Amino acid sequence: MSILVTGAAGFIGSNFVLDWLSQDNETVINLDALTYAGNRENLASLEENPAHIFVRGSIADFDLVAKLLAEHAPRAVINFAAESHVDRSIHGPEDFIQTNIVGTFRLLEAVRAYHGRLPENEKNRFRFLHVSTDEVYGSLNKDDAAFTETNRYEPNSPYSASKAASDHLVRAYHHTYGLPVLTTNCSNNYGPYHFPEKLIPLCIHNALAGKPLPIYGDGQQIRDWLYVKDHCSAIRRVLEAGKLGEVYNVGGWNEKANLDVVHTLCAILDELSPRADGQSYRTQITFVTDRPGHDRRYAIDATKLERELGWKPAETFETGIRKTVQWYLDNQAWVNNVTSGAYKQWLGKQYGAA
Ligand code: NAD
């Protein structure tokens, strides 16, 4: 048997594939377009593993997806492929529309045709799992209850709007065509192989490089954090036992203000890799102009996933963040390789602080 995983050279997808193949020898076909966020180095340990088949290409390429489905007959498709960075969506929304909306649509079309041709027993077993974000629900006020699966969609950025559209398409393919779909909406992930444009890896990278740690606005925006391997275990659980057509929120009940996250990172780095001058990394914190339309608070209520499917995260924020800092300290070569010239230019444009 096999599974087709899209976008699995990116942050979460590569963690998912590494985790999958550490527990299973079911073949993984990894379809990834290798945008700036895709990095085959994440999967270097699988180079000799015949159970990992890498294919460079886009989910928007109907013919390619149809060919892969026909050739490998996967029992599931897990869709991680996306443009995923909010700031980039503000500067250039077009790619987000193309990949997250048009790409998901073409992928669904190819999967629908494939599913329609499967023999009855395989048809019943097949799953399409769409990986999405809590950002589709919009922004919460301080005292609002955390997002449940029945919250209204109120996306505020081109990124979250494009993900919301993809979620709706997935839902519609279930209701209209009977495609056996599952959707997960997860909070912010952190952990190994995270591209250093996002808050946590960016701050670790900049701290060690002696650069400013840029904090948007007052740093009091609240995000709900989940260690990436816990997200992977949730996806595995939903794939195994989720009810068709259902949505599952995934989160670790870890709401933190961005500034507190950066203070925690600085404290761990002060302990594990102290600055030569004995000062705290906190002195590198620099406040920068806030992101336009910046959502104030996200919080996920994961009760449905916990109660109905018995899933629990293995890490607390404290244990997960320590593991993450240690991973970046141990994998400086990976960080140096991904922080290429193009990445530096982007950072300079974004924060004026590359
Ligand atoms: P990422 O940007 O690190 O990786 C995305 C991957 O998709 C890259 O490898 C990229 O090359 C690939 N890709 C982009 N366009 C493609 C296309 N047209 N065809 C095939 N591959 C393509 O993203 P991530 O952080 O790993 O997120 C993965 C998924 O999880 C996304 O759908 C995202 O919306 C969702 N998600 C992310 C988070 C988070 O905190 N990072 C939280 C919740 C949900």
TrEMBL record:
Keywords: Lyase, NAD. It comes from Azonexus fungiphilus. It catalyses: dTDP-alpha-D-glucose = dTDP-4-dehydro-6-deoxy-alpha-D-glucose + H2O. Its EC number is 4.2.1.46. Its cofactor is NAD(+). This is dTDP-glucose 4,6-dehydratase. Belongs to the NAD(P)-dependent epimerase/dehydratase family. dTDP-glucose dehydratase subfamily. InterPro entries: dTDP_Gluc_deHydtase, NAD(P)-bd_dom, NAD(P)-bd_dom_sf. The keyword Lyase applies. The keyword Oxidoreductase does not apply. One of its GO terms (biological process) is nucleotide-sugar metabolic process. One of its GO terms (molecular function) is dTDP-glucose 4,6-dehydratase activity. Residues 4-324 form the NAD(P)-binding domain.
